[in-house]
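User: Predict the structure for this protein chain, please.
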Amino acid sequence: MERAQVYRKANGTTRTTSTTVSLTLTTTTSTTSTHWSSKGLWKYVGPCEVQDNCISSPQVQGHCTAIPPLGTPIKLVSYSKSESGEESGESLTIDGRHLTPSDQGHLFLVQSQLSWSGTSESSWELCTQVPSCEDGLTLTPVVNCPSNLNDLPGCEAVEPGGICRAGECFTSDQLGNCEGLAVYQKAIGTTKTLTTTWTQTATSTASLWQVEGPCGVSGACAESPNFPEA
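Assistant: Here is the predicted structure, written as structure tokens:
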């Protein structure tokens, strides 16, 4: 007969097995830098074309953002939308204001930037303006408008360094930078004066002849009164 296996369990506490899981999170941050191009008076990003003091639409579809010298009047020289412009979301904006072809010829004072999105079929051109008076001093649109707008003189009469309203000088009421009025500050400096001097010189040649009567003298010759008739 087989013997039974008999055991005795030891006295004590139970043993607990624990497992620890370690989790590491990794975060990746990506940065994108924007490269601004500078040409003439303009800083811009995108395919827009810059020539002298003007910026115009490119020959490709895309988007561009531009910054002119802040405080300088900008004139919308030309603007024609493509036939599919509305459907394609084409837009030309200055400080968030959407321009239309009816704004052609108007002046704007850019405080931040202008942007364009569209196709190669759209066409526009914006040019900076440098107003001046006959005295040769340039005019800069003011940013901090004076309180006495109604008392301001015209820019053609104001002294150098003075604040003035658009008048006979190369300015425009369309600017509207001060409560709908165009207000400028004339540069400090001396006026430009143009002076024209005319000089007339008379030349006389002594003659060898002394004439009494109706005979005439021409150079070294004496002539009858009816010369060259017979």
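Residues 131-191 form one domain.
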